[in-house]
Amino acid sequence: MSFRTAVRQSNVLPVATVGAAAWLGLTVLQVVGTMDPLWGGESVGQTAVTGLVGALVIALSIGMLLVFLGELGHSSPGPQTWPPEE
């Protein structure tokens, strides 16, 4: 079963993917809001560097989810029929 077939058969998958992206977006905002200042902050706990790395990883995850949704709309390349028709 391909992703396209799964989406055609289940309307929950795209909604769940968009919901996950929204949840991750809110998590990025929470991480950025709790970060210490870049300069002059404490070196114990959630420092600015760890907050930036965490926000970057979450942003990349959101990007991968958006690419996943974008790929679902493409109709080609599709699987070849079996047995091959000649």
TrEMBL record:
Protein origin, superkingdom: Archaea
TM annotation in the entry: 12-32, 44-69
Transmembrane helix as UniProt keyword: yes
Keyword terms, alphabetized: Membrane, Transmembrane, Transmembrane helix
Protein name, UniProt field: Uncharacterized protein
